């Protein structure tokens, strides 16, 4: 996995390759399993944290 910072710094260089990759996924109708996995964390914003 690439950190967001790396993608941001290399956006212009990576964009054509990522675009091609995404278009291929849509054309074939297959998405890599790793893209279907996420880590979700709750972020406390305000109010009673334990309620």
TrEMBL record:
Protein name: Reverse transcriptase domain-containing protein
Protein's organism: Dreissena polymorpha
Domain of life of the organism encoding this protein: Eukaryota
């Amino acid at each position: 996995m690439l950190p967001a910072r790396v993608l941001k710094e290399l956006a212009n260089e990576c964009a054509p390759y990522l675009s091609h990759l995404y278009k291929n996924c849509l054309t074939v109708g297959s998405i890599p399993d790793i893209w279907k996995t996420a880590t979700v964390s709750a972020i406390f914003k305000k109010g009673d944290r334990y309620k």
